[in-house]
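Weekly sync notes, structure subgroup
Attendees: PM, AL, DS (notes)

Item 1: joint prediction request from the bench team. They want all two components modeled as one assembly rather than separately. Inputs as received:
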Amino acid sequence: MKGVEILPVEGIPEVRPGDDLPALISRAAGDILRAGDILVVTHKVVSKAEGRLVDLREVEPSAFAKRFAVEHEKDPRQVEVVLRESRRIVRMDRGLIISETHHGFVCANAGVDASNVPGEDRVCLLPADPDASAAKIREALASRVGEDIAVVISDSFGRPWREGITNVAIGVAGMNPLADYRGEEDPYGYQLAASVLAVADEIAAAAELVMGKTSGVPLAVVRNYPYKPGPGFAQDLLMEPSRDLFR
Amino acid sequence: MKGVEILPVEGIPEVRPGDDLPALISRAAGDILRAGDILVVTHKVVSKAEGRLVDLREVEPSAFAKRFAVEHEKDPRQVEVVLRESRRIVRMDRGLIISETHHGFVCANAGVDASNVPGEDRVCLLPADPDASAAKIREALASRVGEDIAVVISDSFGRPWREGITNVAIGVAGMNPLADYRGEEDPYGYQLAASVLAVADEIAAAAELVMGKTSGVPLAVVRNYPYKPGPGFAQDLLMEPSRDLFR
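Output from the run, pasted for the record:
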C-alpha cells in the first residue's frame, strides 16, 4: 500500500462575506487535485464567505447571558451569541458552555469563536449547513477538475477527559464519513463487533497537521486514502440521543 | 511547506508474549525511518509482547460482574476483567461500561478487547505503562537508526456525542503531545486563548488511515510533521479532574 499524503494548499485570499468560495477554492486547488483526493476546508473561510459573522456591537444580551458573563468575566454579548447558536445546553459550569448547536454538534461555545476574524467586536459562527456547503464546494470542483473529489469541512473541538482540541469533520460531501468493519473478520477469524471508524474525523485531524493554527492555511489535500465514495454527510457522525450516555 | 506523509510499515511477524518488540520494530522500520519521523505503533502488538493477554477460562467473575453480564448478554468473565482494569466507573448503562483505567484513560471497557487476539477465550488489555513502552521502543530505534525519532502508541477510542471510534495516543515518547498556541497571535492580531492542540492524537488518527482495522498493519511512519521534540507523555493528554465537566 502506498502512503497517504497530506498537502497544504495556499493561495486563498482573505475571504469576505459574499465571496464565491467554491470558485476561489477551485482556483487555488484545481491544479493540485487529482481523482480520489479529499479536500479538507477549515470552516472559518466557509463561515466568512457565507456571512456568518456577528458584530457584537449589535447584540443585546439577555439577563441570563449577562449574569453568566459577569460571574465568569466573559463578554455578555458573546455569551448571548453562544446561547442563540445553541438548541440545548449540555453543561454550563466553571465558565464553560458546552452546548448542542442547531445542527446537532456538541462543542464548546456552540462553535462561536473570535480567532482568525478581522475586526474587533466580531465573532464567527459555524456555517448554517456545513454539509450543504461541502456539497457546493464539491460541485464546483467537479466541474473544474472533472474528477471525483470528496470534501470535508473541519473545525477543532475539545472533548471530555482529554486535554487539547482536535480537528473533526462538521461538513462532508462525496464520501461515507464512517468506515464500518462490523461483521468483517480480523486475521484470527474474530468477527469485529464495535469497529465503526469515524474516518472523516481522522481525515480532518490529519489535515490539521499541515494547516496549523496561526499560519493561515485553510485547505489541505488528503491523497491515496481509499475512502468509500458516494453520498455521505457529517450529520451521520452525530450520535443518536438514545445511545448517548453523556447528554 | 512540504506535505506530511503517512507510510504503512509491514514486516512485523505475529507477536507473542516475551518477544523483544523494540528489536522487531527496529528491524521492520529501521531502514524506513529518518530523523524527525514519528513512528506510530498500534497498542495491540505492545500488549501482546508484554503478555497483557488474559485467558478468560482462568477468570472467576464477581457477583457484580455476573449480574451486569446476565442483564446485558455479556460474557461475565470479560466484564470481570473490565472491572479489574478500571479504577472508576464513569457510566454503566445500556450494556456499556465507560470507565477510567488505572492509567487514567477514559474509554469503553477499560480498553479490554477481544479482536486481533489469537485463540478463543482470550482478551487483550492495554499496556501496563504505555509511556514507558513508547520510551523503550524509542531507545531501541535511537541506537539502531541513530537519529531522533518520536514514538506514539495508539488505540481507537469512542467518544461522546459522535458516532464511530478514532485513533488516539495512549503512549508517547520524544515529543510534546500538545502544541500550545496560547498567547500567539492570529493573522489579525487576535491573541489565541483556547488553542492547545492535541497533536499526538491527530498523529495517531492520521496513522489509522494506513493501518486499517483488519489489514494487520501495526506500524506507520508520520514524516515531515514539525513536532516539538523533547520529553512528553500521553499522561499529559489526561484532563485534570477539576477541569472535567463529564466525570
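Discussion: The first strand of chain A starts at residue 4 and ends at 9.
Action: AL to compare against the crosslinking data before next sync.
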